[in-house]
Amino acid sequence: MRKLSIVATPIGHLEDITLRALRTLKEADVILCEDTRVTRKLLSHYEITTPTLSFHSQSGASKTNKILDLLEEDKHVVLVSDAGTPGVSDPGGELVSDVREAFGSEIIEAIPGPSALAAALSIAGIRASSFMFYGFLPQKKGRETLFKTIAADERASIFYESPHRIIKALTALEGLVPLRRVGLYRELTKMHEESVIGTPSECLNHFKDHPDRERGEFVVIVESL
Question: pTM to 2 decimals?
């Protein structure tokens, strides 16, 4: 059956996957992976032998055309990212658009599951009933302007940050929103999961005291006013 399934996979703990997702991964003709090496660890854990194909932000038009050809042959194609829900700060959005244009929305299905954004919000305990999500912030161009936008917004702001830039992000927030609480959620669902909540300066002091805890990707929530 011609179908494109968008399947959410664990953000850390391998047991955080739905029965429907496992069945879909087993039944598919091919699984599109952001990194096949990462996805194979999950597939091996559940003894899934479905063929994999690399598909990421640099794949280009030729790879997209190959996927469209597979669907034209009535194949069942699954799209996964390295972790979480595809299309949320991960490649895949353009492919979904191309498939919809070629075959219509009827063949596209969502298999929902883990999301670092939702996981962080569920344990945040800070005001974030209305929020703006920025995904990964730009490394250079537009970064300063974006922090000013976050500071001016009465809503909560949520973004992902790498361990290499978390101190710079907190330093920027310290200068712009020194009294607003910030929640930092690191290594969610993994062995070294950690939550830190405080003003930007308090969060900076935490890392000064524990420099070894700058590892892993962060979900950052700037509390609403």
Answer: 0.90
